[in-house]
Design a protein that fits this description.
The protein is α/β, with parallel strands linked by helices. Helix content is 30%, strand content 26%. The chain binds fe (ii) ion (2 copies).
Amino acid sequence: MRTLFEQERHKCVMFSDMSSGEMVQANQFVVVHGDEGLLLDPGGHKVYTQLLAEMPGVVPAGNIRHIFLSHQDPDIVAALNGWLLMTDATAYMPAIWARFVTHFGIDQHFVTKVRQIDDTGGKIVMDGYELLVIPAHYLHSAGNFHLYDPQSKILFTGDLGASLGVDYEVVDDFDSHIQYMETFHKRFIPTGKAIAHWLDTLNKLELDIDIIAPQHGAIFPDRDSAAKLLQWLGGLECGLDLL
Ligand SMILES: [Fe+2]
Ligand SMILES: [Fe+2]
């Protein structure tokens, strides 16, 4: 567990070592504000067991009141049923995926505990504190959101900015880190047009970004590396651009 931010009643932590066996490495993040916890992209069943065991080191599991699902992939949503059974949390997910995700077996909680976010995004409110749900469609999923935490200034970007095969949690040499992102982005991000649209959205929102935290691999821990990532993404040809 790594603490990314801690100030007064607000805390953000990352778990990066819960993927085992053949599963792709994935990060799980928890934001705590006051007494409430928000879990981001919780992952599958094996991760669920470990995360539940370690959660009390951050916040009591029963205090997880919000679960954010950036998109529909198994490394994001597979254990949602368990979390909804164990907690009183509300899960937030892209509306276009809601009827597909129910194949993971959350039928009984679907009406009461799942909030469908429409394409324009919105907010998640924790104890009066607001986090921003930012549209990031086609990065990579057709219905995809990022989450921005204004107090920590962390932008959680799901699969965007992801790296595979790294043995470190934090990027300190951006140029040498590119090799671990390139293959993934060229295949999984459908087109540079989607990136350009997203960069335009960030500019309009005038987000102040200190950290960029993707769901796989190392995080971009400061303003310099975050800016370099945005610049690299802005010039990237990927997906359909390369067909
Ligand atoms: Fe994904
Ligand atoms: Fe992923």
